[in-house]
Specification:
The complex is a heterodimer. Chain A is α+β, with helices and mostly antiparallel strands. Helices cover 36% and strands 20% of the residues of chain A. Among the domains of chain A are: 85 residues, Penicillin-binding protein 2a (Domain 2); 351 residues, Beta-lactamase (3-Layer(aba) Sandwich), CATH 3.40.710.10. The model of chain A has no long low-confidence stretch (mean pLDDT 87). Chain B has 14 helices and two strands. Classes of the chains: A alpha+beta, B mainly alpha. At the A-B interface, helix 1 and helix 2 of A face helix 7, helix 10, helix 12 and helix 13 of B.
């Protein structure tokens, strides 16, 4: 009886065993048969990743085919947030070890620690975040070796830009960097990832679409640490195109050299020299000093380097050739000259008198000459009677005051027409050159003055505008381009820097074609008169210091007063009460069939005819291969 | 007395088959998936497991040839040994994986509670198997409970919840098979029903977390329920036939953790599918049913309770492990007997089966050949 009782217990145990295994069996049926597909998907999601394959970036050559930038191998360290250990202590250990290897902090605001970088840049669990680039080769190998100890950390080979002639070409080529947060969405739509490097200035930026190429992609199998185990399928990238610039670096180096010397003589801290082919708009040379080493930006510039560059009052990171805005001074006189001739304000034979001072009557008390405002010529004794050609050659202010603003019975252009011609010649709008950060400049109008200062426009303002002062602001490149219009007989071209685009096999994709912005509505005869004025400037005018006659040169000098406040908020003036001046010089040559037009600008450089002229002269000597005179007369009288 | 004629092949064959599968699975789940591939010599976990299986087999045969009454006779010493082993472990063991159940002996860690579990089966069989004790009264039942309670507490203090649970289950199983009255069981059940809610707040934080993750597995995919999810993905993605030996992506690419120990069944399911899993369960079922059959035909109550205890122990551990893998039960660290990597578990499991084999070889002749 008792036996049966315990046998019953054994039977119950058997039933429990059957029920237990049946429960497990049904559960497995549910998982492995009913829902199998869903779990198979999940397993595939675990192990398959779609990864981009970087496209090799195009390189850049100068006009003569000299290599200016090359891609060099570098290593970058990434973290895949989703592959980091879940456990916070293990994760901290990974960060600690990685920080030691990379010699960077784990948790710090400046410089950015690993935690901060992850916090800022994490987009999704499996989108990698770059923690460090330009990683030391040795450290990269250790990290690669120790990947089992560093789950979620990935080392990738990442080409970096190495710039030859770095400081010589930095303002033109620019540099690369991270995508700024504001532009991230825009870039992402174009297939970029948040960690990609993009051109952030210069040609690197404006030609990004040409240079970057198209990324490929690959399906890879990864393990739990995010390491690539096998490639399932891949689509190769399309390499970026390479560029040939219009610049000849040999000439560029000569220009930089003469500009540097000219700045030293003038005591100027900022200088610009640009040369262009007036027939096509090709930039032959563009130097903005001081410059910087754009290799510092490859793979991320250090905070110290950046602060040093950014806080330098001379602003070496800024390309003053396209971003600097200055009063153009007398070099601007070609604008009222062209305008006045075309508008019939003056004719070739019209003469106006310069007595050294022009008294502009007070508009409310026109008969009380004691209230009249004096406007002076740079030549106190006056120039006497001048026509438009000699007025340009002598750079007479009084002539152009009258041409611009009128005087007594003689009616001038007025600011509206002056502005119209200035804009026609490219002032007041960016030229459209392939560079970033180009400034628009300013062509004032009475409406503009009322809106900006709440004041009416006075005749005196027109006077000053006519000689490139008052509110007129131009970049050196705009002034160069306006001068080119005179040189080539009336066409405003968009200045260009890229002469040729070639693909990876060397096939030409595109070649520079001149890109006229507009033809001037000015008769050739009128332009010819201004050209003659510029020629006379050299032969018998303000550019009397010019030393060579091997090539016929036409030019215009400029000495532009500017206002600058010192630390006490006072206007800076010299002991005679004169404002400081920028030295300008524009020129083109050969006079009959110009192939080069140039502009020289020396910030706080004094007289244009004295300090900017030698720089222009030496540029043309270099360009036309004219030897230096036997006796060095660099300082001049 | 070792007799080939009376040798119980229905214990031996499934046991060897399961242990062989275990060695193969350790090889697949761990060694193949290492970045450098399988390691040489005894660094190789699969070879170690094979060595443990060899040792286990010898111990199995020795235990089979010994009369199980030897263990019954020395039950007092065995009990003292169990308590001593658990105290020693608690005193000097290193905490590894959050548990202090491991005694570090240089190259190998040894888990003495595994051996203690086998000895407790003998102790309980002796306590409840004395013929003169009537289970009509609660005496033997309470005594057995008082013997088990200290071992459960000591194991619990080692933060080895799984083994503590096993010990309690073995006690319940043997008490049940011994014929304890339903009313006594009901009293215990009611007692448990009042203690469990109180005990919930006494549980270590990690255990409560595990229960939460069990109840809401998809809730926190990057957190602690990670491995439970990965186990489900492993099992489910195996489908009918599995991905093949050494081809499980979840294990080979290391998405599944502790894949060579507690979660080795998930790897098995991934690589051999539903069919393979059913066959493995069938092997365990054959073994467990055979053990119950041995209990039924045992010569005396001691033999009956020993074989029954081994059956309960094996079934409980297999069931809990599979249920954890399939997310039917919350995670408690328990290896799958004779499959999961680990010498202590493998050798003691085979030792227990050896004692059961001994019981089987000394069974009474069938009353009726037709039965």
């Amino acid at each position: 009886m008792g036996d049966l009782y315990v046998r019953l217990r054994a039977l119950l145990l058997r039933i429990v065993v059957v029920i237990g295994f049946a429960i497990v069996g049904f559960r497995l049926w549910d998982l492995q048969v009913v829902s199998s597909e869903q779990y198979l998907d999940a397993a595939d999601r675990n192990r398959y990743r779609l990864m981009p394959i970087e496209a090799p970036r195009g390189v850049i050559y100068d006009r003569m085919g000299r290599l200016l930038v090359r891609n060099v191998p570098g290593f970058a360290v990434y973290i895949v947030p989703g592959d980091l250990p879940r456990d916070s202590e293990e994760r901290a250990a990974v960060f600690e070890r990685l920080a030691n290897l990379l010699e960077m902090p784990v948790d710090s605001e400046t410089p950015r620690g690993i935690e901060q970088i992850l916090q800022e840049r994490t987009i999704g669990p499996y989108l990698r975040v770059r923690v460090a680039s330009q990683v030391d080769r040795h450290a990269a190998f250790i990290i690669e070796e120790d990947h089992l100890e560093l789950p979620g950390v990935v080392v990738m080979a990442e080409p970096q830009r190495h710039y030859y002639d770095a400081s010589l070409m930095a303002h033109i080529i620019g540099y690369m960097g991270r995508i700024s947060p504001e532009r991230l969405d825009d870039y992402r739509q174009r297939g970029y990832q948040p960690d990609d490097s993009v051109g952030v200035s210069g040609i690197e930026r404006t030609q990004e679409a040409v240079l970057a190429g198209i990324k490929g992609q690959k399906h890879i199998e990864v393990n739990v640490f995010g390491r690539e185990m096998a490639v399932i399928a891949s689509e190769p990238p399309e390499p970026g195109h390479s560029l040939y610039l219009t610049i000849d670096t040999e000439f560029q180096a000569q220009v930089e050299d003469v500009l540097r010397k000219g700045m030293a003589v003038a005591g100027s801290e900022i200088g610009v020299a640009i040369a262009m082919d007036p027939r096509t708009g090709e930039i032959l040379s563009m130097v903005s000093l001081p410059t910087f080493d754009n290799n510092l930006f490859s793979g991320g510039i250090s905070i110290d380097d950046f602060v040093a560059l950014n806080e330098d009052p001379r602003r070496p990171l800024v390309n003053h050739a396209v971003s600097g805005l200055y009063p153009p001074g007398s070099t601007f006189k070609i604008v009222p000259a062209v305008a006045a001739l075309q508008e019939g304000v003056v004719h070739a034979g019209t003469t106006l008198e310069c007595r050294g001072t022009l008294l502009l009557p007070n508009r409310f008390f026109p008969n009380d000459m004691s209230l009249a405002q004096p406007f002076r010529c740079w030549r106190r004794a006056g120039h006497g009677h001048l026509n438009v050609v000699t007025a340009i050659a002598q750079s007479c202010n009084i002539f152009f005051y009258q041409v611009g603003g009128g005087f007594m019975e003689f009616s001038g252009l007025g600011i509206a027409r002056l502005g119209e011609y200035a804009r026609m010649m490219g002032f007041g709008e960016p030229t459209g050159i392939e560079l970033s950060g180009e400034a628009a400049g300013l062509v004032p109008s009475d409406r503009w003055k009322r809106q900006t200062f709440g004041e009416s426009w006075y005749t005196g303002d027109t006077y000053n505008s006519s000689i490139g002062q008052s509110f007129v602001l131009s970049t050196p490149l705009q002034l160069l381009n306006a001068t080119a219009v005179i040189a080539n007989g009336g066409t405003l071209y968009r200045p260009q820097l890229v002469s040729q685009v070639v693909d990876i096999q060397g096939n030409v994709v595109s070649t520079l074609t001149p890109d006229p912005i507009r033809e001037m509505a000015v008769s050739p005869e009128n332009i010819e008169l201004v050209r003659r004025g510029m020629r006379q400037t050299v032969t018998s005018g303000t550019a009397w210091r010019w030393t060579f006659e091997d090539v016929a040169v036409a030019a215009k000098t400029g000495t532009a007063e500017y206002t600058k406040l010192d630390e006490h908020g006072q206007l800076i003036m010299d002991q005679h009460g004169y404002l400081p001046t920028h030295a300008w010089f524009t020129a083109f040559a050969p006079y009959d069939d110009p192939e080069i037009v140039l502009v020289v600008f020396l910030d706080d450089g004094g007289e244009g005819s004295q300090y900017a002229l030698p720089v222009a002269e030496n540029m043309l000597r270099a360009y036309f291969d004219i030897p230096q005179p036997e006796t060095e007369t660099e300082l001049g009288p | 007395m070792f007799s080939l004629r009376r040798f119980d092949w229905l214990i031996f064959i499934p046991m060897v088959a399961i242990a062989a599968i275990g060695v193969a699975m350790v090889y697949s789940a761990f060694e193949i998936s290492l970045p450098g591939g399988p390691r040489p010599g005894l660094e190789n976990f699969a070879l170690r497991q094979l060595l443990f299986a060899g040792i286990g087999l010898v111990i199995y045969l020795v235990a089979a040839s010994l009369d199980y009454h030897v263990w019954i006779a020395s039950f007092r010493w065995l009990y003292l040994l169990v308590i001593a082993m658990l105290l020693v472990t608690l005193a000097i063991a290193d905490p590894t994986f959050g548990t202090r159940a491991w005694l570090n002996l240089g190259i190998f860690g040894i888990q003495l509670s595994e051996l203690g579990r086998i000895f407790m089966i003998v102790v309980l069989a002796r306590t409840l198997g004395v013929e003169s004790h009537r289970l009509e009264n609660a005496g033997p039942f309470l005594i057995s409970g008082m013997l088990v309670a200290p071992t459960i507490i000591l194991i619990y203090l080692q933060v080895d919840f799984g083994m503590a649970l096993m010990m309690g289950t073995i006690w319940l199983g043997i008490v049940f098979l011994a014929g304890v009255r339903w009313r006594h069981l009901a009293t215990i059940a009611m007692g448990a029903a009042t203690i469990i809610p109180l005990g919930w707040f006494q549980l270590e934080e990690y255990m409560r977390g595990r229960v939460y993750h069990f109840l809401y597995p998809g809730h926190d995919p990057s957190g602690a329920s990670y491995n439970v999810n990965q186990a489900l993905i492993s099992i489910g993605s195996g489908g009918w036939w599995g991905k093949g030996f050494g081809q499980g992506t979840q294990s080979q690419l290391h998405f599944l953790r502790v894949r060579h120990t507690d979660f080795i069944f998930s790897v098995f399911c991934e690589e051999f599918g539903f069919i393979g899993a059913m066959l493995l369960i069938l092997l365990f079922a054959v073994l467990i049913f055979r053990l119950i059959r041995v209990a039924d035909s045992a010569r005396d109550r001691y033999g009956r309770l020993i074989a029954g205890g081994v059956a309960v122990s094996l079934f409980a551990q297999v069931f809990i492990n599979l249920a954890i893998n399939a997310n039917i039960l919350p995670v408690t660290g328990l290896p799958l007997p004779m499959i999961s990597y680990g010498g202590s578990s493998l050798i003691t499991s085979m030792f227990a089966l050896g004692i059961a084999q001994s019981v089987s070889q000394r069974r009474k002749p069938p009353d009726n050949p037709l039965l």
